[in-house]
Amino acid sequence: MPMGPAELADRLGRWSAGRGPLYLLLAARLRRLVDEGELPPGTPLPPDRTLAATLAVGRGTIVAAYEQLSVEGRIVRRRGSGTRVAGPSRPGPREATTAPVFLHLLEPRDDDVILLACAAPTSPPPMLQSAYERALSQLSAVEGDMGYHPSGHWPLRGAVADLYTRRGVPTDPEQVVITNGGQQALSLLARAFVQPGGTVLVEAPTYPGALEAFREHAASLHTLPVGLDGFESRIRTPGRRPELGYVISSHHNPTGNVLPSLARRRLAAAAADADIPLIDDEVLAHLSFPGQDVPPPLAAFGRTVISVGSLSKSVWGGLRVGWIRAARPVISRLARLRAVHDLGGDFSAQVAAAELLPQLETLCQDTAADRQASHDHLRAELARQLPQWRVPAVTGGQTLWARLPHGDGDSFTQTALRHGVAVLPGGGLDAAGGSQEFIRLHFCAAPGTLTEAVHRLATAWHAYGGEPDRGTPGPRVMAV
After folding, report:
1. Helix, strand, or coil here: 357?
2. What is the CA 33 to chain-centroid distance, rounded?
3. Three-state DSSP class for 123?
4. Would the pLDDT of 63 be above 90?
5. Is a pLDDT exceeding 50 seen at residue 475?
6. Which residues pair with 85 in a beta bridge?
7. Of the candidates 300, 214, 175, the residue with the CA atom closest to the CA atom of residue 250
8. Which of 53, 168, 338, 339 is 20 to 30 A distant from 367 in Cα terms?
9. Whole-number Å distance between alpha carbons of 383 and 359
10. Do strands 220-224 and 421-422 pair parallel, antiparallel, or not at all (unpaired)?
């Protein structure tokens, strides 16, 4: 089967962000993918016209790039047979992720591109520095401890348990396992519960990192609307019982939705009645705007709920500390799985996190007004410069879900990239193949950066075929 143009576009990453003719930039990135084995010998490549439409370039750009690689002997083009990577087809290495949310992180830093694709605080708060200073004094007193703790540092497990208890979910430290961030938590849960071909119910759209974690274990992803609306009737269908459910109940990524208490109660009760593990991704749960409260955690309403949390979104992206809160047998199983892979997380980071966690709610309250101001600023700039876009307000979290009036997110993000701003196309967040008319933007950057980003998006939209830019150029601000 030929590689789909959208899949190849994802693998190409920020190919057009360099300098020089587009066909040479495209040929250079394709060359690297071939030479590094990401495009193994025999791989069919998309036809000229379909790839050109996806990358939002002229067909001549694709033809020239393909011809360059053909002259080099890296690809073969035959009339009637299409284009493929040179060499006999053979099984390649296990395929790695092609999700843009991860590929953007793997790209070299480029100060000419504003990244609105990956959302997280961009600098550690003073409170984190203080927590590390206190942790250092504790580390100097450690004796007879190798620092290998697959379940996590005991005081940190206790601090997480206390956090849930304060939120109305009585929790014992033995119901908590510490992970290297929320992404590792999802990977562990996928490994523990998903069999190849097994069904996982997910929202459409949802966090793309979760989709990748489930796909890594060959899950069959079935979608329901945001909030897993229809979960009860879906699990009653004979022969269609899922192995696992995944929901983001608070400040949903990407839509910002908050699941009401009654809906939480019904969803958790249905999962418990059917004995189906239900992952509640709470990584964004503490990021409410001032005066906006969220209902109790989903775990307050059902025994099969597995809660996932992390400090990377609420404190700093570089603090790779997360956790899973679940029944003791589940935690014991997850700890055994984790021991095989990394023996345990960074001990010093966990000591600092144990110092920080009791202050998490205070930290999030202190930053709530600034986060709302950034949200309001981004929406105001979008309304001023791109009034034809539909961008609903949210009550917390970090992202906006913008609907384009025409076209599709895959091709528009390529145009936006050539104008110096990276955003996520909606199709990659929807396991059903929908959401093509959406893009995801985050508002974690400084106001000046957001202003410049929207100016670039408006210029890109005009180039894409949208209405003319009605705004005025903002100051040039580098990526953060």
Report:
1. helix
2. 23
3. coil
4. yes
5. no
6. 75
7. 300
8. 168
9. 36
10. unpaired
Percent of the chain with pLDDT over 90: 75
Ranges of beta strands (E only) in 236-304 are 244-247, 278-281
What the block records as the tokens of 364 is 């999030």
Q: Is 141 exposed, middle or buried (0-12, 13-18, 19+ CB in 10 A)?
A: exposed
The residue with greater pLDDT, 98 or 224, is: 224
Residue 281: CA atoms inside 13 Å, Cβ hemisphere, count?
A: 30
Contact at 8 Å (CB) between 317 and 309?
no
Neighbouring residues of 18: CB distance < 8 A, sequence distance ≥ 6: 25, 28
pTM for the structure as a whole: 0.87
Name the nearest CA neighbour of 428 among 156, 273, 237, 221: 221
Separation CA 479–CA 399 (nearest Å)? 17
Residues with Cβ < 8 Å from 263, sequence gap 6 or more?
A: 227, 229
Residues ≥6 apart with Cβ < 8 Å to 294: 250, 251, 258, 285, 288, 396
User: Phi and psi at residue 322, in whole multiples of 5°?
Assistant: -135, -175
Q: What number of residues does the chain have? A: 480
Q: Which one-letter amino acid corresponds to residue 280?
A: D
Amino acid at 298: L
396: number of Cβ within 10 Å: 24
**Contact call for residues 335 and 311 (beta carbons, < 8 A):** no
| Residue 340 CB-density burial (10 A; 0-12 exposed, 13-18 middle, 19+ buried) | exposed
pLDDT for the residue 418? 93
For residue 244, what is the DSSP state? E
Helix (H) or strand (E) holding 136: helix 126-139
Task: Name residue, tokens 């005991």.
Answer: 154
Six-digit token pair at 469? 């830019």
CA distances from 205 to 166, 194, 434, 439 (A): 31, 20, 8, 11
What is the structure's pLDDT at 56? 93
Nearest Cα to 317, choosing from 139, 445, 144?
445
